[in-house]
Specification:
single chain; 294 residues; mainly alpha; Farnesyl Diphosphate Synthase; two-stranded antiparallel sheet; 15 helices; binds geranylgeranyl diphosphate
Length: 294
């Protein structure tokens, strides 16, 4: 864990450096720069960037490229968090130990800062500074749009809110969480398969492993909420129960959820077995995901 935390900090710092430089070289003034930067640099772990770096390492992709793609994904992720915290959605006042964007500024500013991060994400990915062929860049943009839009994160969030205070079965909860959280992790894996020029079948295998990593991440997030250490989590905990969220914990209880998560972790590790020692850092990230406290 300690070893991985150090590596995660380096990736987070390199991602932040890239993103800070991105804002520095923007020529036009924007009043939205302040709320955008507030949300983006408020201490996120950058775990999605770390997954991209570690899947890329497993297949020998250049580190700088991975940091650029990771930065684009972290902008998308920050966008989704700003909107998730809004009164119309989860209505939360704290995130990452700080006031949520709509609490720090106001609702319309938070909506627009979120929208801006969404487009910045594609701005970064489409830049020719990302030294890839036009065809590969297009595929990356297309896939990110697909994972996050109305068939991905957007729909996952819709289902999450729709399922509140309803009786929902295990299968539906898993589908919802795979969309809400899993799809973006799916992209973190598939983007490497795209850069490597893998065929659709192999791309799908990567996407599915990543989606399972995302599901594991969401379940771990629910376990953290249940255990309830607000200081470490950086946000109010025990919220899922209060809000009547459709989670595995609320359906089958803490212990059975932990057993489910451990089985899922085992499956993911097994799927990565053939990469041997090249997957060592990636395996460490997966172990961190289930054992983290924040
Ligand atoms: C992208 C079109 C589009 C819509 C977005 C609002 C929304 C729709 C989706 C929200 C999805 C959501 C909030 C998923 C939860 C994922 C999750 C467990 C977040 C916490 O991630 P961490 O712990 O956060 O990586 P840090 O703070 O470390 O960055």
């Amino acid at each position: 864990m300690k070893n991985f935390s150090k590596k995660l900090n380096i990736i987070a710092s390199d991602t932040n450096k890239y993103l800070k430089k991105f804002f520095l070289i923007q020529k036009n003034h924007s009043f939205l720069a302040k709320p955008v930067r507030y949300s983006l640099f408020s201490g996120g772990k950058r775990i999605r960037a770390a997954i991209i770096v570690n899947v890329g390492k497993m297949l020998g992709i250049n580190y700088k490229k991975l940091i650029v793609i990771g930065s684009a994904v972290e902008c998308m992720h920050s966008y989704s968090l700003i909107h998730d915290d809004l009164p119309a959605m989860d209505d939360d006042d704290f995130r990452r130990g700080k006031l949520t964007t709509h609490k720090k500024f106001n609702e319309f500013t938070a909506i627009l800062a979120g929208n801006s991060l969404l487009t910045i994400s594609f701005q970064i990915l489409s830049s020719n500074k990302l030294k890839l062929s036009d065809k590969t860049r297009n595929k990356l943009i297309q896939e990110l749009a697909y994972c996050t839009g109305y068939t991905g994160l957007g729909e996952g969030q819709y289902l999450d809110l729709t399922y509140e205070n309803k009786k929902v079965n295990k299968e539906k909860i898993i589908i919802m969480q795979k969309k809400k959280t899993g799809k973006l992790f799916g992209f973190c894996f598939e983007c490497i398969a795209i850069i490597k020029g893998f065929n659709l079948k192999k791309r799908k295998i990567f996407r599915e492993i990543g989606t399972n990593v995302g599901l594991l991440f969401q379940i771990a997030d629910d376990l953290i909420d249940h255990r309830g250490n607000e200081k470490i989590a950086g946000k109010p905990t025990k919220r899922d129960k209060k809000k009547g969220k459709a989670t595995l914990i609320n359906l089958i209880g803490y212990k059975k959820t932990l057993i489910f998560a451990r089985k899922l972790e085992k499956k993911i590790k097994n799927d990565l077995k053939k990469y041997g020692s090249k997957a060592a850092d990636l395996i460490q990230s997966i172990e961190f995901i289930l054992r983290r406290e924040f």
